[in-house]
Write a structure and sequence with these properties.
- The complex is a heterotetramer of chains A (288), B (345), C (253) and D (414).
- With 345 residues, chain B is mostly helical.
- Chain B contains 17 helices and 2 strands.
- In chain B, 77% of the residues lie in helices and 1% in strands.
- With 414 residues, chain D is α/β, with parallel strands linked by helices.
- Chain D folds into 2 domains: 202 residues, Rossmann fold; 137 residues, Response regulator (Rossmann fold, 3-Layer(aba) Sandwich).
- In chain D, the strands form 2 sheets. In chain D, strands 7-6-8-9-10-11-12 form a 7-stranded mixed β-sheet, with helices on both faces. A 5-stranded parallel β-sheet of chain D has the order 2-1-3-4-5, sandwiched between helices.
- In chain D, helix 9 links the parallel strand 8 and strand 9.
- In chain D, helix 2 packs across helix 11 and helix 9 runs parallel beside helix 10.
- The N and C termini of chain D lie far apart (81 Å).
- Classes of the chains: A mainly alpha (288), B mainly alpha (345), C alpha/beta (253), D alpha/beta (414).
């Protein structure tokens, strides 16, 4: 029974990882940029949720659309002002630029909100859990998982069924050919970065009732996000979702069997093994 | 043989290979020694803050210069360079504290350890390209950090290792700072010399060829894997050595302070801002950013927390956008432009 | 100086390329090429490997930046436009090596061909027409483009470009790597497109076929135009094989 | 082109020269008039992950300074702070170096975290600058026998620390569970940082000597975002008493997830830091009720339990703190206040000279009995500079507020 509980918890936390990883993989797949600022975008999403609650009294799930739209704008703005100039450059410059953006967002958060841990109490959900037999499912975590699933399906639908989505995939596959067909590549990038950022915002909203926010909260989650992205196959949206759940479960099981201290080592060692043995990931990067 | 072919090829490496005469290594040594002497004098009489600033600048300059061999010359974005730095710091400190082995011997063992780690990490990871390599090295750095945290009997875990403040040249521990300036400055000079020698040799051209286009380099007969492994070994060894000097200076080690991802990122930022791939780029980056960071932290740290990292981040963004070849690259470009103008007029 | 559009069209050629230079680093790929294409005309560009043909065609579609010179389309300098705006004007390129969106279906590839606003309106009807013109695609409409045979891929690449309703179609080495029987079919399709009034600028290694198809032709060598005339004139010119065999000369550079 | 090899060297030399001129302009004006203020260097982590409690401690310092200055200062001389941020060990070395060689600085106070205190105090001692530690509890801080280091707060290595825990368990916890310590199943959970490991080591040692049945020992990284596996392991071990040593965010996570997963040991004994922070209380609210927390200063005690001579009194301190900060002090603010007040009243005011030797002599002479500080413990330094009278206290969350329950003499509740 305990193992099932561990599995359930792993799957649920995996949903949050998935939500972050889907955004990373989308940007990576379409723009070929490893976005090291994705964790900070999640952090911004968390603070924004907190702010909307403390200032306007909005329930985080009510604030969801506001945060998502705001983060879309932030991501698009980051592309328009900064990333646009480096899409043609090597990945070193891109990575360092996104690192710089991350440092700026982190410092700004520290200056505005201070370094303390702030959490959000929402009465209907706090400590609330659904108990089935001896299995307990945290409602906030369940909500996060459901949102992650819906967001992934919505994104897959967008990529597969709409002209904008097809243009994103076409740009991912062959940027020059896309240009020759009249696809405005920079606008596609802008939208991609906006969606990637909005997904980080969504993850932030869903995480806020689970976990306290502080300026460097994104760093650790981002690293796990990278593991998930590589596991799922760079650029594969469905792979990122699946990878998120796998990593969530692996982390939980390793934590239970070997102790929490070892679970990080296990996760990152697994990461190296995947990189070396199957760098294309479990699903080849063909969704984007 | 391959060097000639590379020389004749028309890729972007061409101007760089052609325009560089053999570095005057003796000049570098001469001026380096004078500069170190001057800095040592300054640090012995200046307030501690400035002495500390000089030592930290030299340490980070050496670290970024060592990263440059693999990250700049060979173009392999290593995001886990703190692994070598930390390995060196822990190796000599554990040998010193637990076995009483002098840090000087510890330094040599650290060099060997770092070089070995560079080789061992390189063998599997150099097969990976672009962002994959960057992510793999990032993960390796995190694994080493977690190992240091986990194996507490050896490393003290997060509690860290506190080194005995026994003064003297034999223990590489001093009350004053000028000795550290001499040691770290001398080490930096060695790093620069090795880098300079690499750049002016066939090895340097081969690294440049691998950086610009690995497939093409292989086609031209460059053994890319071997070249990268050698660069990784040298880079790792040099980074580990500076770890020992750092440990003997700060006298206190924690996993986060020497193995943290933040350390790796700082190294890259210094090199990229200064100009990665250029001999003096990382040094320039350290000279500009480390004192700037320390000054902002001192002036505003208590009142405006976050300002010093904000300044850092903004500088990184501006340099990447405006001077993609780093500040050193921008300066040499400008100098070349002025020269050309002067010739024309 | 302001003349009506009609007058521009009557005095100025449809596409005019004037003294264009393009550099890759320190290498000059085009060194002052001048040529033109009239409305509805089929023009071939022939030359050795490395003569600058692909560079020229990529310069028209905006993928290469000019070091100097100008490219005008109906009196409008193309250098001012973002490359993705060209299909709107009616200039569409079929790039060398097809460059299909391999992991999208045939139908999706066609749909993306009609991305710009004007074409998007007629997208559904356009696809029906393409399927009629290239029936081989009809049966494979839901297949991934990457799984098609070389010839089918080339047909799809042309079909995708036609979806944008081009007035000037740029074709870069369309017959490369195709079986002779497919090449024949391909050239008949190109001829059909040209006959319907679309201007075609064709870069080809298959010199005889290309020249036979064209109204006019240019021979490029080391980035400059060395010969110009009707397709037949060039075919009969004894200097042509030398131009085509200019490989040694080009490589010496 | 070969000339370019000079440039960095010249740049370095230039930097050195700049530094030289800069120092020439800063050194020089050290006046020592009777009315001139006394400068104390404050070295705390005010940014980064340690900043929450670093700031809490700074609050305590500021209140102590305000009250002391209002009361007339040191013979009319006011106390001034030179606040320096030291978020990392590296910065601690830099800041400690600067402060300890600044001729205007009389002594350094700090530093809450052991990872800051250890390197900073080493540098200060090398420069013969008195270092007044008010927050770090790690044994290593005073173990090194540094010449100029004094620690007002308890060391985890002191017998008093373990004895208090042992006594609390046998006299309060076990009776409450209607059992005896050797029949109970103990579990230990801690964050693997410097704080968590050193505190848990002490508990393990105690468990060894007392023969506690320690059935589960779990550690985790403080920045974790899921503790399910840890909680499930503890659950599986069927423990009665949980000894828990978390940081702040993981204290929140542990409490919330334990509730969600239905893990509720009969008795939870938390160790300081995480459980006594404002953030923790704000996050978990009344979920924490019943939780017992051990820390280095008691909270919410009454004036009558302390020495009648104590000035300012406990309630005066609370009032001043509420006025200045806007809420009640927590343990780290209290510890900061106590440390600073002892330095001001007992050392600076009584020292014959305000140089290092005078301060060391005055510090060696401090002799405050129980009840003579607002944290109730006395102050007397042993040869390593450790306050051998520092105490260890147990409090319980009752209706969202921490109430001291042990030592029973101080108990204001239960």
């Amino acid at each position: 029974m305990t193992t099932i509980q561990i599995l359930v918890s792993g799957v649920l936390i995996g949903g949050v990882y998935a939500l972050l990883a889907v955004g990373i993989t989308l940007v990576l797949g379409v723009m070929k940029i490893v976005n090291f600022a994705q964790g900070e975008l999640l952090m911004v999403g968390m603070y924004l949720t907190l702010l909307l609650h403390t200032v306007l009294g909005l329930h985080p799930y009510v604030a969801f659309p506001i945060v998502v739209v705001a983060l879309f704008g932030l991501g698009a703005g980051i592309h328009f002002g900064l990333l646009r100039w480096v899409v043609d450059r090597g990945h070193t410059q891109q990575i360092v630029l996104t690192l710089g953006i991350g440092i700026v967002l982190q410092s700004a958060a520290l200056m505005i909100f201070g370094g303390s841990f702030q959490s959000l109490q929402i009465e209907p959900f706090r400590g609330g859990s659904i108990v089935i037999g001896s299995i307990s499912i945290g409602t906030t975590r369940l909500a996060a998982f459901v949102v992650a699933g819906i967001a992934t399906i919505a994104l897959l639908f967008l990529l597969d069924r709409t002209l904008t989505g097809k243009a994103m995939r076409a740009t991912a596959m062959d940027r020059d050919a896309a240009t020759l067909m009249g696809i405005p590549v920079q606008r596609v990038y802008l939208i991609t970065m906006g969606i990637g950022s909005a997904l980080a915002g969504a993850a932030g909203v869903m995480l806020m009732p689970i976990y306290p926010v502080y300026p460097t909260v994104g760093v650790n989650i981002l690293l796990i996000g990278f593991v998930v992205v590589v596991l799922g196959g760079l650029g594969s949206v469905a792979g990122a979702f699946l990878g998120g759940i796998i990593i969530g479960v692996v982390e939980a099981l390793a934590g239970f069997w070997l102790g929490a201290a070892m679970s990080q080592i296990v996760v990152f060692a697994l990461f190296i093994v995947i990189l070396l043995v199957r760098p294309q990931g479990i699903l080849k990067g063909d969704t984007v | 043989m391959s060097q000639q072919i590379v020389n004749r090829s028309s890729g972007p490496i061409d101007p760089m290979v052609r325009s560089r005469p053999l570095p005057k290594h003796s000049l570098l040594i001469g001026f380096g020694v004078v500069a170190i002497a001057l800095l040592a004098f300054v640090s012995s009489s200046a307030p501690v803050f400035y002495g500390h600033m000089i030592v930290m600048t030299l340490i980070y300059a050496a670290l970024a210069t060592s990263w440059n061999i693999i990250g700049g010359f060979a173009g392999q974005l290593s995001l886990g360079h703190a692994a070598f730095f930390g390995l060196g710091a822990y190796t000599s400190s554990i040998l010193f504290v637990d076995f009483g082995i002098s840090p000087w011997i510890g330094l040599l063992i650290a060099l060997l350890g770092g070089a070995t780690l560079g080789l061992l990490i390189g063998i599997p990871t150099f097969r990976l390209r672009g962002p994959y390599f960057a992510l793999a090295t990032l993960a390796l750095g995190i694994i080493l950090l977690n190992v240091a945290v986990h194996f507490r009997e050896l490393t003290g875990g997060h509690v860290g290792i506190s080194l005995p403040p026994t003064e003297g040249w034999g223990t590489m521990t001093f009350l004053n700072r000028w000795q550290y300036v001499v040691i770290a400055g001398g080490y930096l000079l060695v790093c620069l010399l090795i880098s300079g020698i690499i750049l002016s040799n066939r090895f340097g051209y081969q690294l440049a060829a691998v950086r610009e286009d690995e497939e093409a380099a292989r086609a031209l007969g460059v053994n890319a894997t071997r070249v990268k492994l050698l660069a990784g070994t040298l880079s790792g060894g040099l980074a580990a050595g500076i770890g020992t000097i750092y440990a003997q200076y700060i006298l206190f080690l924690t996993p986060d302070s020497v193995l943290g991802t933040a350390v790796s990122i700082e190294i890259i930022v210094l090199a990229i801002v200064g100009g990665s791939g250029k001999l003096y780029g990382p040094l320039l980056g350290a000279v500009l950013l480390i004192p700037a960071g320390q000054l902002v932290l001192r002036e505003f740290g208590g009142a405006l927390p976050g300002l010093h990292t904000l300044v850092y981040g903004v500088i990184v963004i501006i340099v990447i956008l405006l001077f993609p070849r780093g500040i050193w690259g921008m300066l040499t470009d400008t100098a070349a432009l002025i020269n050309r103008r002067r010739k024309h007029s | 100086m302001r003349l009506s559009k009609h007058i521009w069209e009557t005095i100025l050629p449809f596409l005019e390329i004037h003294d264009v230079r393009v550099n890759y680093g320190e290498v000059e790929a085009l060194r002052g090429a001048t040529l033109s294409v009239n409305e509805g005309e089929t023009v071939a560009i022939v030359g050795a490997n490395g003569a600058g043909k692909t560079t020229l065609i990529n310069s028209i579609s905006g993928l290469n930046r000019l070091s100097s010179g100008s490219i005008m389309f109906e009196g409008q300098p193309l250098g001012d436009l973002k490359p993705h705006r060209l299909p709107e004007l009616g200039i569409v390129q079929v790039p060398e090596g097809r460059r299909l969106f391999a992991r999208l279906s045939v139908d999706d590839n066609l749909q993306l061909g009609a991305y710009h606003k004007r074409a998007r309106r007629d997208s559904v009807k356009g696809r029906e027409e393409i399927y009629r013109l290239l029936p081989v695609l009809q049966d494979r409409k839901d297949q991934l483009a990457g799984t098609l045979s070389g010839g089918q891929q080339q047909m799809l690449a042309i079909g995708r470009a036609l979806m944008a309703q081009p007035r000037l179609l740029l074709l870069d080495e369309p017959s490369l790597g195709l079986a002779p029987i497919v090449v024949t079919e391909l050239f008949s399709i190109i001829a059909r497109i040209a006959s319907e009034g679309t201007a075609v600028l064709l870069v080809e290694q298959n010199v005889s076929r290309a020249l036979a198809l064209s109204n006019r032709a240019y021979a490029l060598q080391q980035g400059t135009v060395i010969m110009e005339g009707t397709g037949q004139e060039l075919l009969n010119d004894p200097g042509l094989p030398a131009a085509m065999l200019g490989i040694a000369a080009a490589a010496k550079e | 082109m070969s000339k370019s090899h000079f440039k960095p060297v010249l740049a370095l030399a230039l930097m050195g020269t700049l530094a030289l001129t800069a120092c020439a302009s800063t050194a020089g004006d050290s006046t020592s008039e009777a009315e001139a203020p006394i400068t104390i260097g404050v070295l705390l982590p005010l940014t980064g992950p340690l900043s929450t409690l670093g700031k809490e401690m700074q609050n305590g310092y500021e209140v102590a300074r305000t009250l002391f200055n209002e009361a007339g200062g040191v013979d009319g001389r006011q106390i001034e702070f030179q606040v320096s941020d030291a978020p990392t060990p590296e910065d601690a070395v830099s800041v400690a170096g600067t402060l300890s060689t600044d001729p205007d600085v009389t002594a350094i106070m700090g530093s809450y975290s052991s990872s800051i205190a250890i390197p900073a105090s080493a540098v200060a001692s090398r420069n013969q600058m008195p270092y007044w530690e008010t927050g770090s509890v790690a044994a290593a801080t005073t173990d090194r026998g540094l010449s100029h280091l004094y620690r007002t707060v308890i060391s985890a290595a002191m017998p008093a620390y373990s004895n208090a825990t042992q006594e609390f368990i046998s006299k309060v916890a076990a009776p409450a569970l209607e059992s005896s310590p050797d029949e109970l199943r103990f579990g230990l959970v801690f964050e693997d940082g410097a704080y968590g490991t050193s505190a848990s080591d002490q508990f393990k040692a105690l468990a060894g000597t007392e023969g506690y049945n320690l059935v589960a020992t779990e550690s985790y990284a403080a920045n974790t975002n899921d503790l399910t596996s840890v909680i499930e392991r503890l659950k599986a071990a069927k423990i009665d008493v949980l000894y828990s040593v978390p940081n702040i965010n993981d204290a929140i996570l542990l409490t919330q997830q334990s509730a969600a997963l239905g893990f509720k040991p009969a008795y939870t004994l938390g160790n300081g830091t995480g459980y006594t922070s404002v953030d923790f209380i704000a996050a978990v609210g009344d979920t924490a009720d019943g939780l017992v927390v051990a820390d280095a200063a008691p909270l919410n005690i009454s004036d009558s339990l302390l020495s009648a001579d104590l000035s300012p009194t406990y309630s005066e301190f609370i009032t001043a703190y509420e006025e200045q900060i806007g809420r009640k002090p927590l343990t780290h603010a209290t510890l900061g206040y106590v440390g600073a007040t002892v330095l001001f009243q007992e050392v600076l005011s009584k020292a014959e000279t305000l140089d290092a030797d005078g301060i060391v002599a005055a510090a060696e002479a401090v002799d405050l009995g129980p009840g003579e500080t607002v944290a109730s413990f006395g102050v007397k330094f042993d040869e390593t500079g450790q306050n051998e009278r520092a105490g260890w206290f147990f409090m319980q969350y009752q209706e969202g507020e921490l109430v001291t329950i042990y030592p029973t003499a101080l108990a204001s509740g239960q």
